[in-house]
């Protein structure tokens, strides 16, 4: 007894003297990004003990750091946890300002939130789920040991960035939800960094490439290198002088950096700030999400080439890169607002932008988050590449993935990876946007599962080529994958099953129950009584030849709604649940299910709707979950 008391006293003395603690959980999530929050909340709701650790002083990643104009194409692709977030934003503005207020309208169905509102919603979701959250803690070391002959992540050390406290966290499962892939790298997982060559996967946009209007130009060698997409800040700004603070002149202001922009203005190529120099997108309360205009000019907020050392950089290196981008960004706005060589019209337009007094008070009203468009990329059980978001042969849909746990619909989009060449002075190396041929694409579970490491899932810095990553690097997709990772973690803990052997169909069923999708339909919503039935059969490929028989011409879907980038639902992706099932379709579905000779459905389908027929078929053929390995 005395020995136990002595050890306890020594432990308490150690904690108060050195700030060290040791804690255990079922799941530890590192990275308070939206994907990490989705993982943590979903797992906590599943009844396991969850700890979320974030390096910044706040959670939410880019959605609480200035990114408010969310990237996706159609609302039909946005379901599950992200819809819950949207509903929370919508409810906040409705409660505070009224259901018919301008703030509600400007939030656009809850998509576009001020940073502090996004933070409020995320904090509320975490609290209601009972997730323990530690902010201002940076990963120091990952602990791996062999279990059953395989390396397994079982613990990690973290240190407080604001004080001497440190902690050792032990868990049955870890999720790396950082943008950079810091935990998976510390654990010793293999990963990719930079651009593959064109030969590696046969990708059109791989390697060194210059693209204009969808055409690949001379000088595009396709050679692989260490280049990654350029970073910038998504700057939250306001045009309200009452709520505004002036842009400070940075300490190391260098006018010469911005002269290429001045020359473009003086040549008449640029006549305005909005949509020619910067992307300004309105959000509630007279604020803007200000982003890089990467396809318009050789110089904007992002600086291709400056970010290459960030993913593998230590704390000191990242601070150096952050400061360089910060001073460049502040100087960029200072130059536009104050340089007398800038035409008065453009200067006056730029002067309408201020830093908001009611955002980021802890960080001098400027976002604490740099936009990490691309970091490390896991080497996983499966690798997502360029063709995986394109139209599959002999169908109007994309490639069928029966092991899908998420859906995307944005298509290939990469910001510049390097500066323009002298042969293409207005085009950044590696910048491309190729959405016109993409269709909604399914994303398999295996992109989150490391090749060899056990005890870890990676839903953000996931397994893909550089080009494939350009179709996956969106908060909506990362949140969907994070939600699936949370479900997989609960299953692994409760069933004592390795993550790579968790039944994918079980993850899918729980996702569907939570309103998530694994296949895209334009006319079946989570609120429909047959939603889960259609998601089940759709994920198995029952609609890859439906509703169109034979060949149909591809229809360009990029018909934007108003001044948004969002479009109506993709054509040819309707399930038509209330249509009558015809003989040919009924027999095809029965054959797929191995029920050709079923005494009832094979004879009495006449007059049944597709929803009724598939519901009856579902009762017959629902199988126990299977695993990927």
TrEMBL record:
Natural source organism: Flavihumibacter fluminis
This protein's UniProt keywords: 4Fe-4S, Iron, Iron-sulfur, Metal-binding, Oxidoreductase, Signal
Name used for this protein in its record: FAD-dependent oxidoreductase
Coiled coil spans: none
Gene3D superfamilies, per database record: FAD/NAD(P)-binding domain
SUPFAM superfamilies, alphabetized: FAD/NAD(P)-binding domain
Pfam family, one: FAD_oxidored
Domain of life, source organism: Bacteria
N-terminal signal peptide: 1-19
């Amino acid at each position: 007894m005395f020995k136990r008391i002595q050890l306890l006293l020594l432990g308490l003395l150690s904690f108060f003297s050195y700030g060290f603690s040791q804690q255990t959980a079922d799941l530890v999530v590192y990275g308070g990004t939206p994907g990490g929050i989705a993982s943590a909340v979903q797992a906590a709701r599943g009844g396991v003990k969850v700890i979320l650790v974030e390096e910044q002083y706040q959670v939410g990643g880019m959605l609480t750091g200035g990114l408010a104009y969310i990237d996706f194409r159609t609302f039909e692709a946005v379901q599950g946890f992200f819809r819950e977030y949207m509903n929370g934003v919508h409810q906040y503005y409705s409660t505070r300002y009224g259901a018919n207020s301008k703030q509600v309208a400007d939030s656009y169905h809850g998509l576009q939130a001020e940073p502090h509102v996004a933070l409020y919603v995320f904090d509320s979701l975490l609290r209601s789920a009972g997730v323990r959250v530690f902010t201002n803690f940076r990963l120091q070391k990952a602990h791996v040991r062999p279990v059953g002959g395989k390396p397994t992540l079982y613990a990690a050390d973290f240190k407080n960035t604001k004080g001497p406290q440190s902690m050792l966290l032990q868990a049955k499962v870890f999720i790396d939800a950082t943008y950079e892939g810091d935990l998976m790298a510390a654990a010793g997982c293999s990963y990719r960094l930079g651009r593959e060559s064109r030969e590696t996967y046969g990708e059109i946009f791989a390697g060194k490439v210059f693209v204009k209007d969808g055409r690949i130009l001379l000088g595009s060698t396709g050679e692989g290198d260490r280049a990654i997409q350029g970073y910038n800040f998504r700057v939250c700004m306001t045009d309200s002088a009452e709520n505004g603070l002036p842009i400070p002149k940075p300490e190391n202001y260098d006018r010469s950096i911005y002269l290429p922009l001045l020359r473009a203005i003086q040549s008449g190529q640029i006549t305005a700030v909005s949509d020619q120099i910067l992307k300004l997108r309105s959000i509630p309360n007279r604020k803007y999400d200000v982003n890089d205009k990467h396809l318009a000019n050789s110089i904007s907020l992002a600086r291709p080439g400056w970010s290459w050392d960030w993913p593998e950089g230590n704390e000191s290196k990242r601070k150096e890169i952050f400061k360089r981008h910060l001073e460049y960004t502040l100087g960029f706005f200072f130059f536009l607002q104050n340089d007398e060589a800038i035409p008065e019209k453009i200067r006056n337009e730029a002067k309408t932008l201020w830093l908001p007094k009611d955002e980021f008070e802890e960080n001098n009203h400027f976002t604490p988050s740099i936009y990490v468009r691309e970091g490390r990329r896991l080497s996983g059980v499966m690798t997502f590449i360029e063709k995986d978001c394109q139209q599959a042969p002999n169908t109007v849909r994309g490639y069928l993935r029966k092991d899908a746990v998420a859906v995307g619909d944005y298509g290939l989009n990469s910001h510049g990876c390097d500066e323009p060449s002298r042969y293409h002075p207005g085009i950044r190396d590696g910048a491309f946007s190729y959405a016109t041929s993409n269709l909604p694409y399914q994303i398999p579970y295996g992109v989150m599962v490391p090749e060899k490491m056990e005890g870890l899932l990676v839903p953000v810095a996931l397994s893909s080529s550089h080009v494939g990553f350009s179709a996956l690097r969106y908060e909506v997709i990362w949140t969907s994958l994070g939600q699936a990772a949370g479900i997989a973690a609960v299953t692994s803990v409760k069933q004592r099953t390795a993550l790579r052997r968790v039944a994918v169909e079980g993850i899918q069923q729980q996702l569907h129950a939570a309103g998530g999708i694994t296949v895209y339909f334009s006319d079946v919503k989570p609120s429909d009584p047959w939603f889960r039935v259609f998601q089940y059969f759709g994920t198995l490929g029952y609609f890859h030849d439906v509703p169109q028989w034979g060949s149909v011409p591809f229809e360009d879907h990029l018909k934007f709604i108003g001044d948004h980038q969002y479009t109506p639902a993709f054509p040819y992706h309707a399930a038509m649940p209330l249509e009558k099932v015809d003989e040919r379709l009924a027999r095809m579905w029965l054959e797929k299910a191995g029920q050709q000779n079923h005494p009832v459905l094979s004879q009495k389908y006449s007059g049944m709707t597709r929803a009724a027929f598939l519901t009856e078929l579902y009762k017959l053929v629902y199988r126990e979950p299977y695993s990927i390995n």
